[in-house]
Design brief:
The longest helix is centred in the last third of the chain and has 14 residues. 3% of the residues lie in helices and 42% in strands. It has 9 domains: 103 residues, C2 domain (Immunoglobulin-like), CATH 2.60.40.150; 210 residues, Protein of unknown function DUF4465 (Jelly Rolls), CATH 2.60.120; 92 residues, Immunoglobulin-like, CATH 2.60.40; 92 residues, Immunoglobulins (Immunoglobulin-like); 92 residues, Immunoglobulin-like, CATH 2.60.40; 92 residues, Immunoglobulin-like; 92 residues, Sandwich (Immunoglobulin-like), CATH 2.60.40; 75 residues; and more. The protein is mostly beta strands. Strands 11, 12, 13, 14, 15, 16, 17, 18, 19, 20, 21, 22, 23 and 26 form a 14-stranded antiparallel sheet that branches. It has a 5-stranded mixed sheet with strand order 28-34-33-30-31, with no helix packed on it. This is Flagellar hook-length control protein FliK. It holds the Pfam family DUF4465. Keywords: Cell projection, Cilium, Flagellum.
């Protein structure tokens, strides 16, 4: 406690002093006062008020928070002001509490705040309190003058709705009217309803869509109005149209929209009437604005669903483009329609329709008015404010104000009178600035102003020359025929041109005037006006120039010697100091002498010119004219004396490098004085011989053989002499490099008549200029196609099929080109006539067994070259005697008495010869059994013995080992396997490559040991190696196709019967069907041809050697590669080695002819009958199908018979693969039946599967071996 001591002194009022009690004052009795305990603060009250409410957007509003406490007390602390609209708190600022009034004493805090968003703003002011007074809060609300139609002025019970069942026909909220139509017969409604139902999904009404009262129509899918509570409107669009009428003085600005629960669930889930929305579905609400007359002023689209996404939240739509609308009409369309129209429920929900005040404008007097009439405009602002101003603008873009801004009083503002409105339809815009409690707005008024305008034209048009007669025509708008026009020259309307002229049909033309002053003149036409047409005037500007003349002189005067500097002076009449003079040498004003020269006091002089050509030259001075002066020009003739030198060459250009060339200079005037020196090249530094005396105007150089290849310039310099100035001239000579042309053909000679052949010319020096023309035969009279452009030294002819049989010479003629001399070359081609062979027998069929019979072959074309070999039976394995020479087209066999009983086919094979292709023909002979004598008792025979098993010939059944290499992307190694699947050797022939390795196994050296041949896959230059697997030695290495990088296939077999396997190489995809054959042992190339008769095919090829009957007679089998059909061509091996292409069997398709994935091929005696059979594998993209055809049937009955009765037809390895299958043959079990090895195709894994021939013959395709050659690789394998 504290103590207060009361003291009294004489003559004074007692006062309070604070002293400690002390013994020095014994006579004074102290009074002790005890103070109350004030440790708890007292209460306070805060009230909040705004200076303006409503307040316009962006207008500062002063907020005052008054803090009330018990009288006599002084509060301290601060007040925090906040905007807490829509549940979101936005701090506005903090201000201290201070005393603001003394009678009574008041305390408050003030803060200036500006609001930018439309609508109501809920404000709070929180007093912080201090040590004596507790905190307290005050609130208030301000708005920006807009109307928020949020239906809060409509009364509803909780979770209910109004749908027009009271028959009122609609309702009004915020001044806007919402239409409604209720049908009591069906208890149904259209138009607008208002609701606070909060159904959002079927969980809240599980009987949807079968609720008896259809409550789900009245729910917004978000559940409540925007912000979480309150009333909102729902609309059902039917007839009559769903509409809102905007109150007078207001215009629409925005609104919030969403789906009703009914519509949303229908789109999200589908129902019995409508489908579930998918990615391409949409539901569109269109708001159309109409003015008071029902005219459409605009539309706003709003998607309630788009691209399958259904709107499930409230979203705002900007409707300000419909500001001039008095009615809003709503319609809906959907992607889900049916026979009776839209299937999607035609409902939507709306809230927070925002309206803002408008401005209306009137004029006095009312439109239309006559031009020049003073007009005033009055703006009426909704809400009758007395704050802000209105600025009136004439015309578009608000750039032409009518006077100054006018203060608004009681909602109106009027302009001062304006008499300057232009003739026509004028739009007047009144822009209200807004003010405290009122937002800015604007309105327009249209005014039609009638009147005339006068325009003036002149004839002739400006500029004109002084003294020229000029007339002027005035055109008056509206085409009056009343009133007159007076024309005035110059300013001030004081110098009339003639008398006033009557206006007829809107025009009047002045008298001609020749007195216009030089310079810029203005002519004014004044229309007097007349009944119904106000007066007006217009002007035309005319420039009148003084006429000038230009004369030219030269210094020195003409004539002058060539090379003399000369200047020219132009003198312009009237002595102007404006404009320029340009001087030109020669005709056509195309060769200016220097730049244009300014005219000063009427003269202009060129710089000196020493380059005038010899002869009579005309110099023209062109004056440009200038203000007040017309253009003009003049000429001066100057004679320039001198010589000219021209040069010719012999022989004329072009010449070939090293050719002697002489040059002759001809000097004009035919002097016999002076010399000419000839120079080669630029710079006059390389003379051709010594100077040559000029005689009668000519001089000829010594012969020059050293001109450089290319374009050379030779200059002849005439020294001049008495009476003749010096001069020089040039001659251009093209010196071409000598070339040679060589020619090759494809295919190479010899060829069969009718074969398509192309020729390639190679020109030395690799030019890319000029053309080559190819000629067949002598005389260069029979061109093969058109001339062909040379590129990098080569040109290839069109394909020719018409070369004559015999020895043909083809000539390629290169025409030469810049830097390259012409040349030509030849290629000899032997064209063999295609032959046919027919066979007859003597005696004719039938014959009796044992009868001697001879056969005669007749070869078409009657050749006396080549031989015919006769064969009995199928397979061309049983020759009748030796080959017989053909003479005059015939050859007769030796007599043969051994034909077997039955029908025998005799085949005559013509080998071909120079100019004649090989061919063959057959004859059928029926042999009947001879009549036997009565049988006698046969001698006793010994017991039969079992026949020995067939011999196992490698040429028929394959090697006892096989090799496997990977496809593209696999390892670069090759593995050699024994017949039991064990590894015999592993090789890495092309280290580091990733294109895979193709392989085969055969004895190339004839030493009884199998070798391995390998070839590269795509991605590197194609290479093939033959390797001894025991030592690793490379026995042969070749790059067969030049720079080709598409990969190769390899095969092997003894085509020549030498006991050594021959090597066969073919290209992979992107190569042609080329086949190269190298002889075993020395590996010399013995054949090179197209295995598929289509040289343009670029799918490559695969090959196999068919051991035929095992007696050395073999065939080569070629299959088309990927991109071609599974086409198979079979060639007689002996004929191939003689350069002949003989087909013992016609081409056929191994699989369906419609396929385009080629085929893989191998050959071996699968059925053990002594004749090789053909094994085919499907190409990439097909199933792993393996087809084995009987070789004997193929040779005797053709492909149709063989295909009809195959040895086997099955799917190998993984039967689900569709990557094709590679095939090979090997002797895996040592018997007389070739066994089949298969490998997975590209992308099909690395599985290798083997099948025994003896099983396949019996119809059993069960694998013998099955393993993954490269367990971690799935890209396919090659087997061989």
């Amino acid at each position: 406690m504290s103590f207060r001591l009361l003291m009294w002194t004489a003559g004074r009022k007692a006062k309070q002093v604070k002293y400690p009690i002390h013994k020095t004052f014994p006579s004074i009795k102290p009074t002790v006062e005890v103070f109350e305990d004030r440790t708890q603060p007292a209460s306070s009250t805060t009230t909040l008020a705004a200076q303006y409410t409503p307040v316009a957007s962006n207008v500062a509003d002063l907020l005052t928070a008054t803090v009330s406490v018990p009288a006599g007390a002084t509060p301290t602390g601060t007040v925090a002001f906040s905007d807490v609209s829509n549940g979101v708190t936005t701090p506005l600022g903090t201000a201290p509490v201070s005393q603001v009034g003394s009678s009574p004493v008041t305390f408050a805090a003030t803060l200036s705040a500006t609001f930018t968003t439309e609508g109501a703003h809920d404000l709070t002011a929180v007093y912080s309190g201090d040590s004596n007074f507790a905190t307290s809060t005050g609130t208030t609300t301000v708005n920006d003058g807009t109307t928020d139609v949020n239906f809060s002025d409509l009364s509803l019970a909780s979770n209910s709705y109004w749908n027009g069942s009271d028959g009122s026909g609609g309702f009004t909220s915020g001044g806007a009217n919402f239409n409604n139509s209720y049908d009591t017969t069906y208890d149904s409604w259209t138009g607008w309803a208002y609701t606070n139902v909060n159904y959002t999904n079927t969980a809240l009404y599980p009987n949807y869509p079968n609720d008896s009262d259809y409550t789900y129509q009245y729910g917004a899918y978000p559940g409540t109005a925007p912000g979480g509570s309150g009333t909102y409107a729902v609309a059902y669009i039917s007839s009559p149209a769903t509409a809102i009428t905007i109150p007078n003085g207001m215009q629409v600005q925005s609104a919030m929209f969403t789906n009703t629960t009914y519509a949303a669930l229908s789109m999200l889930n589908g129902d019995s009437f409508a489908k579930k929305f998918g990615p391409n579905d949409w539901f569109l609400l269109t708001i159309t604005g109409e003015d008071a007359s029902g005219n459409v002023v605009g539309t706003v689209p709003f998607y309630l669903a788009n691209n399958g996404s259904v709107l499930t939240t409230w979203q705002s739509a900007d409707l300000s483009s419909l500001a001039t609308a008095k009615t809003l009409v709503f319609s809906e369309t959907s992607s889900d329609t049916g026979t009776f129209g839209m299937n999607t429920p035609a409902f939507f929900a709306m809230d927070d329709l925002t309206l803002v005040p408008t401005v209306s404008v009137t004029s006095s007097p009312v439109s239309p008015v006559t031009s020049g009439t003073p007009v005033t405009f009055t703006a009426s602002v909704a809400g009758s404010p007395s704050v802000g101003t209105v600025t009136f603008y004439a015309g578009p873009n608000l750039t032409d104000p009518i006077g100054s801004p006018v203060n608004v009083v009681n909602g109106t503002a009027t302009t001062s009178a304006d008499a300057n409105l232009p003739v026509g339809d004028d739009t007047i815009t009144a822009v209200y600035s807004g003010g405290t409690g009122f937002t800015p707005s604007q309105g327009t008024e249209s005014v039609t102003v009638t009147g005339t305008t006068t325009t003036v034209t002149s004839s002739p048009v400006s500029p004109v020359t002084s003294g020229t007669p000029v007339t002027f025509t005035a055109s008056v708008s509206g085409s009056p025929s009343v009133g007159t026009v007076t024309f005035y020259a110059g300013p001030g309307l004081t110098n009339p041109i003639g008398s006033p002229v009557n206006v007829v049909n809107g025009t009047a033309t002045s008298a001609a005037d020749t007195s216009l002053a030089a310079g810029a003149d203005t002519v004014t036409a004044v229309y007097s006006g007349g009944t119904g047409f106000p007066g007006s005037q217009g002007t035309e500007s005319v420039t009148v120039n003084t006429a000038t003349t230009t004369t030219v002189t030269s210094t020195p005067a003409s004539p002058i010697a060539a090379g003399t500097p000369i200047t020219f002076t132009a003198t312009v009449s009237g002595s102007p100091s404006v404009g320029t003079v340009t001087f030109y040498a020669g005709p056509n004003l195309t060769d200016p002498i220097g730049s244009p020269v300014n005219v000063v006091n009427g003269t202009a002089t060129t710089s000196a010119d020493a380059n005038l050509p010899v002869g009579d030259d005309t110099i023209t001075a062109v004056y440009s004219g200038g203000t007040g002066f017309t253009p003009s020009q003049g000429t001066e003739s100057v004679t320039v004396t001198g010589t000219t030198t021209t040069v010719t060459s012999s022989p004329v250009s072009p010449v070939t490098s090293g050719t002697p060339v002489t040059f002759t200079a001809s000097v004009s005037g035919s002097p016999s004085v002076g010399t000419v020196t000839f120079y080669a090249g630029p710079g006059l530094t390389n003379p051709i011989g010594s100077p040559v005396n000029v005689v009668n105007g000519t001089a000829t150089s010594a012969a020059d053989t050293s001109l450089a290849a290319g374009a050379d310039t030779v200059t002849a310099v005439y020294s001049g002499g008495t009476g003749f100035p010096g001069s020089q001239g040039t001659e251009s000579v093209t010196v071409n490099t000598a070339t040679t042309t060589t020619v090759t053909s494809s295919p190479v000679s010899p060829i069969t008549a009718g074969t398509s052949i192309t020729f390639t010319a190679s020109v030395s020096g690799n030019p890319s200029v000029g053309t080559v023309t190819f000629y067949a035969g002598p005389g260069l009279t029979n061109p093969i196609g058109s001339p062909v452009d040379v590129v990098n030294g080569t040109a290839t002819s069109a394909a020719a099929t018409s070369l004559a049989a015999g020895a043909d010479t083809v000539t390629a003629v290169y025409v030469g080109g810049t830097g390259f001399a012409p040349s030509e070359g030849t290629e000899s081609v032997t064209v063999n006539t295609a032959t046919t062979t027919t066979v007859t027998s003597t005696p004719v069929s039938p014959i009796t067994a044992g009868t001697s019979i001879t056969f005669t072959a007749s070869v078409s074309g009657s050749p006396s070259v080549g031989t015919v070999t006769f064969y009995a039976g199928p397979g061309l394995t049983n020759a009748i005697g030796s080959p017989v020479n053909v003479v005059n087209g015939t050859a007769t066999s030796a007599a043969d008495p051994s034909l077997a009983v039955g029908t025998d086919t005799i085949t005559a094979v013509y080998s071909g010869g120079p100019a004649f292709t090989g061919s063959q023909g057959t004859e059928s002979v029926s042999v009947t059994a001879a009549v036997s004598p009565p049988p006698s008792s046969p001698p006793v025979s010994p017991p039969p013995t079992s026949p020995p098993p067939p011999a196992t010939t490698p040429a028929l059944v394959g090697a006892p080992q096989f090799a496997v290499g990977s496809d593209v992307g696999g390892p670069s190694t090759v593995t050699l396997y024994n017949s039991d699947g064990s590894v015999a050797a592993t090789l890495d022939p092309f280290p580091g490559t990733t294109g895979g390795v193709r392989t085969a196994v055969a004895d190339f050296m004839g030493n009884g040991t199998d070798d391995v041949v390998v070839g590269t896959g795509p991605g590197v230059v194609a290479e093939v190696k033959v390797i001894d697997p025991t030592t690793g030695a490379v026995l042969f290495d070749v790059q067969p196709f030049g720079n080709f990088t598409g990969g190769v296939f390899v095969a092997a077999g003894d085509l020549s019967g030498s006991g050594k396997a021959d090597l066969v190489i073919t290209p992979d995809v992107s190569g042609g069907p080329r086949v190269e054959i190298y002889e075993g042992g020395d590996f010399r190339e013995v054949a090179n041809f197209f295995g598929i008769d289509d040289p343009n095919f670029r799918g490559g090829a695969q090959a196999a050697v068919d051991g035929a009957a095992g007696n050395g007679v073999t065939e080569l089998v070629v299959a088309a590669g990927f991109g071609g059909g599974p086409r198979i061509s079979v060639y007689d091996g002996a004929s191939l080695l003689q350069g002949q292409l003989v087909h013992p069997v016609a081409d056929f398709f191994a699989f369906e002819s419609t396929l385009r994935n080629g085929a893989y091929v191998a050959a071996g005696d699968v059925n053990g009958d002594g004749t090789d059979d053909l094994v085919f594998g499907a190409g990439s993209g097909g199933g792993p199908r393996v087809l084995i055809l009987n070789g004997a049937t193929l040779l005797s009955g053709g492909s149709v018979a063989a295909m009809a009765d195959p040895i086997s037809n099955f799917f190998a390895g993984d039967t689900q693969n569709r990557d094709g299958v590679r095939v090979a043959v090997a002797n895996l079990d040592g018997d007389a039946y070739a066994d089949v090895v298969t490998g997975a195709g590209t992308g099909g894994g690395s599985e290798v599967t083997t099948y025994l021939g003896k099983n396949l013959v019996g119809g059993n395709a069960t694998p013998d071996l099955n393993f993954d050659a490269f367990p971690t690789f799935s890209g396919g394998v090659f087997v061989g």
